[in-house]
Amino acid sequence: MDATALLKQGVRAIQQKNVPDGRTLIKQSIKEDPYNDVAWVWLARTEPDPRRRQQCLQRALKINPANVQAHKMLAQIRVATQEMPVIKGDTGALFDVKKVAPTPIDTQELLAVNTLPPPPSNTRRIAPLLREAQQLVKDKNYEGAIEKWVEVLALEVDHEEALQEATAMLDKMGFREDARELLQRAVEADSRKPFVYTQAIDYAMKDQDFRVVDDLRERLVRLPEADDEAIAKIVLAYRYEMRTELAYETAQNALKERPKSQPLLIVMGDLLRRDDKILEAMSYYNRAGQLGKNKEAEARLAKFPPILSDRERSSVWMAWREVAGIVIFILFLAWQDARLNFMEMGAMRWLGVVLSLIGGYLLITATSSPQQKPLAGALGGHIPPLKNDAVLVQRPGVAALQEATRIPLLGAPVRLLFGVIGLGLLGAAVWLTFGSTIQLLLDLLGVSV
Amino acid sequence: MFTLLFIFLYILLSLVLSTLVMPLPINDDGAMRYGAMPWATIILLIVNVAVFTLWQAPDILRYIQATTTAAENAALVDVEAKFDFYSSAAATVRDATGIGAWVTFTGMFMHGSFSHLVGNMIFLWAFGRRVEDACGTWRFLLFYVFAGMVSKVAYYTLVDSDVGSVGASGAISGLMGAYMILFPGQRIRCLWVGLAPFRWIFVAITRVFGSDRFTNGFFISLPAILVLIAYLGTDLFATVETARTREMVGTTNYIAHAFGFFAAISIFLYVRKDLLARYLAGRRL
Q: Which residues of A163-191 are buried (b: 16+ CB within 10 A; e: fewer)?
């Protein structure tokens, strides 16, 4: 059976006061054709819960914003929910919902089905209307253009181009209320386009309608389609309005949903920094920076000491890179000692170079890289207890923020041993590679070895 | 006293005159991220100045102030004796005479004149602190000496000369090269007298049109990459000429400058590991 036939049967059943069967048939009809606004209105009539009834009507209006019955019923629901809990018989409904309240059918399921783009037939009708509107703007027939955009909005209540052009033009012509009304319709139809909310927020802010602003912000933040920048802007607005707790809550909730959002990480860092929680702020900026090139995060980080993370501390190749710096230096000494001739280097000098490799590695492990994986774990290293997310380390020659580590750290006795052996081997390496030259100096000074 | 004042004014004037053509880097505009005291740079400055003023300068001053030929010759002998023994010459290393390969090290701390020393120390201060901040004291010292040695050895191998090479400029070129690799976008405060008249004219014109955006003066903040490429460019030209003829061009050891610059590639072995990680990730240092 097709959707229309199902709807007709459903309506007939409801008129015969067989509401449960009528609801089932209408529900089946909507499943077949979710773009039938009349079916949604009928489903609303059978819905006992005012909130769900409202959702059905909003869905009907999203499909057809010109549906008069849906508008009337919505207005009456608003009055009823403010004044009376029950919809009266003169609402246009054919029966008293309360009297014949059926077992609730989950309309959410249907609502979820209908989160689709406008029907294709509408899309085909929208394009020529937009072209006509553009032509009318060129001809300076602005009223005509607005009419065309409104026609588009009747087909798709939150069509981006039509809504933006129409509101801008209406605003420009002094019909601000009308512009706001168009946006309001899109909001009421549960638009999933963020621009609708950001634009509506702007209007409400200018009108100092702060309750509406809050409601719109809340809806925008929950919208999966909302971009991170817009949410970050809302967080900052809360902070600017001295609603710090709300700002933190919004940012934290948003970060739970979008943990890899650079703008949100930065805004969270900004909140913390303004509250003088520098270390935590740095940690957020650093996370933002690690996610990819981000000038804003880097500019903020540049004002503070850099962060050392476990990634660098545990790196074995980073340690060997430092060793390479020492070995190249020693090799260069050996070459000069061999009178700038590699062929005359001899076994002892090459042995010195090898010793510098081992000694350099031990010294580097003892001093700047005591957390190499898996060496530190194998040699009885322990993970230092976590106190904070990050700590400021200041010692001669370095001032840096260190993220709390989760990598084992070599114990002090092992490091001392490595350091002493490393220095000894390096000393031997210098003697073996640069010995002839050292001997020249000793001879000159009259020292005999 | 008068002589010292005269020397000081002469150096000052020659420095200012040198900026008629090329900008003279004075300072780094950026913040030191690690906030560490640049001990190595300060120590290198002190050692260079001390070696010249306390050890070399008395002989040079004696030579300048000598009133008789005999006194002049005696002073000159002392000056040259130090150069011959401690300056970096190919023969000393190849034949292992005197102090042998130590000369590549000792030559790094000697200078030919007071203006030579002052010029080098200005560059050391301008570029050294930031590179030291990026490396840490010990690794910075190792890199400095390595770049200095590379520049001296390049001179032995490419120039047929028994004349020794003195000066910290090879090592400092290494610092400049490292700076160019690590902080190309950084701005450097420069003294550029030659540009000042043009700036005055330009600023006057912009003021006529009501703009206060530009300022005039002798100092200008320039991107490090431009300043360093300009210096490298002048060195490269003379280096190619030196390598081709195997003879020095003028009295400046351009070949040492250029090879000091090339030695800067090794900076990746000496920088802090978190800095290298950020560099490799294309992040701000």
A: bebbbebbeeeebeeebbebbbbbbbbbb
Which range scores top for mean pLDDT: A44-58, A167-181, A273-287, B38-52?
A: B38-52
Q: With CB atoms and an 8 Å threshold, state whether A440 touches B137.
A: no
**CA A406 distance to own-chain centroid:** 26
d(CA B44, CA B56) in angstroms, rounded, equals 16
Question: Which pLDDT value is given to residue B47?
Answer: 97
ipTM here: 0.90
| DSSP-assigned letter for residue A106 | -
The number of beta carbons lying within 10 Å of the beta carbon of residue B106 is 18
Reported as type and span, the H/E element at residue A189 is none
- The terminus-to-terminus CA distance of chain B in angstroms comes to 47
B284 with A302: Cβ contact below 8 A: yes
The predicted model scores a pTM of 0.70
Report the residue from A293, A312, A325 with minimal CB separation from B142. A325
Residues of B with CB under 8 A from a CB of A: 31, 33-37, 39, 93-96, 98-102, 104, 136-139, 142-143, 145-146, 149-150, 153, 156-157, 266, 268-270, 272-278, 281-284
CB contact under 8 A, B284 and A298: yes
Residue identified by tokens 């940690």 is A283
Query: What's the one-letter identity of residue B211?
Result: S
Q: What is the pLDDT of residue A69?
A: 78
Alpha-carbon distance A384 to nearest alpha carbon in chain B (angstroms): 20
The Cα A143–Cα A166 span in angstroms is 10
Of A125, A169, A171, the closest CA to residue A144 belongs to A169
As a whole number of angstroms, the distance between CA B107 and CA B164 comes to: 8
Q: Which of B270, B277, B282 sits opposite A311 (nearest CB)?
A: B277
Two structure tokens written together for A313: 């501390």
Q: Which two tokens stand for residue B108?
A: 């790094």
Interface probe, candidates B269, B275, B276, B280, chain A, greatest A C-beta count within 10 A: B269
Q: Please list, in sequence order, all residues whose beta carbon lies within 8 angstroms of the beta carbon of residue A123, skipping any fewer than 6 positions away.
A: A117
Average pLDDT for A1-9: 81
What's the pLDDT at B238? 78
- Residues from chain B contacting residue A302 (CB–CB below 8 Å): 31, 33, 284
Question: Within 10 A of A15 (CB to CB), how many other CB atoms are there?
Answer: 11
B221 φ/ψ sector (left φ>0, alpha ψ -120 to 50, else beta): beta
* pLDDT tens string B218-262: 899 999 999 999 888 887 777 777 777 777 666 778 888 889 999
**Both tokens assigned to B284:** 């701000």
Query: What is each CA distance from A300 to A265, A297, B131, B133, in whole angstroms?
Result: 12, 5, 21, 19
Q: How many CB pairs under 8 A join A and B?
A: 116
**B34, B146, B157 ranked by CB distance to A399: nearest:** B34
Residue A392: per-residue pLDDT: 65
Q: State how far residue B213 is from chain A, nearest Cα, in angstroms.
A: 23
For A382, phi and psi rounded to 5 degrees? -130, 155
CB B152 within 8 A of CB B107: yes
Q: In the prediction, which pLDDT does A117 show? A: 54
Rounded Cα distance between B82 and B59, Å, is: 10
pLDDT band at B141 (very low <50, low <70, confident <90, very high): very high
pLDDT exceeds cutoff 90 at B276: yes
Radius of gyration of chain A (CA): 37
Query: How distant is the Cα of B67 from the closest Cα of chain A, in angstroms?
Result: 34
Q: At what angle do helices A194-206 and A160-172 cross, to 10 degrees?
A: 20
